[in-house]
Design brief:
heterodimer, A: about 220 residues, alpha+beta, two-stranded antiparallel sheet, about 30% strand, B: about 130 residues, mainly alpha, 2 domains, two-stranded antiparallel ribbon, 6 helices, about 10% strand, elongated
Chain lengths: ~220, ~130
Amino acid sequence: MKKQAVKARIESAIRRFASASSSRAYALVPQSLTSGKLYEAHVLSIVIEQLSTQESFQITLVNSRFIPLKSSPGPINRSYPHFQLRRGRNLVAELWTDVKFTSLSYDQRGPSRPIQRGDYHELDIVVTDSGVSGRPRHSQIWLGVECKNTGYTKGLLKEILGIRRELSLLQSPKPTHFTRWPRSQVPAEPASCLMVFSTDVGVAQYSSPGEVFGIDFQHEQI
Amino acid sequence: MTNEDYREILQSTRQMLRQAGLGGVDERIMSDMRGSEGAFWDLMYYLKHLTEEVTLGSDVQLGNVLRRVRRHVRTESGEAVEGVRVTVSGEDRQRYDVEHIDFTPNPELGEIAQEFRALIDELNEDHQRNSNQ
């Protein structure tokens, strides 16, 4: 092989690489939807990385080779793509995206009553018990994550405080399902972890109630 | 080719990447490199990692998501995670006339990665032949 020929081939490939842009088939879809979902994918990749490196879960994507997101939240449909979380050979939990869970207040009123709109709430990313279908109960949630690709506001703080209230009761710290990440203890019963990721650096200004109620706020730029 | 040739090819490849506005790719590959294994093996290491970068695409945001997920997630088929798919709900489906929105690296990038792989194979064979002489 000749040195000049190798250099010429590399140069040609790099030129094509630099000019090739990503293919996205969403010309008619508003940018607010696509940028919000890309932020959710970004946060999901961080959550997955932490669950793998900090918690040593073996993670498998099932029913697809695409990272799954939904334009609107809904119940868990087991035929949809999701992530299985294993410790050793044991399937212990699952990670789903854009899921509605049934609230603590619904559970306390007695789930035999007809479900109303106020009885379920959305989370962008959830880690749940394995094998759940439909809307998971608040007590089946190990971790809930909200992704906010927007300026953080008082309204969003109130929303996440409401989610915390409908997931658990305030208690002295209880062990979570995790050893380190996102936290090993939370002042809540059931002991679910709750996180907010926001592109707004000002999210830190809203984090103090989370210290009491067990909500972790994280500024994460895309 | 001599060790000096391999060194020169590596240097010119790095320079080409930086001139093409892809200095971040060069930095990532170099920061993962642990010491020198010799001129030929350094070039092989660089080209292999450059090939992986090519498959991730030039969209930095999507590339970072895929890099992280591919590192920590396996699929049932054992193949790499392809991209991100947003399933569009009933109402939105009518509004935007799409069933899902895919975020994937440009398919052309697969061809470019294949070119790099072919070049790596040829360089390997050439190096093997020279070593046997």
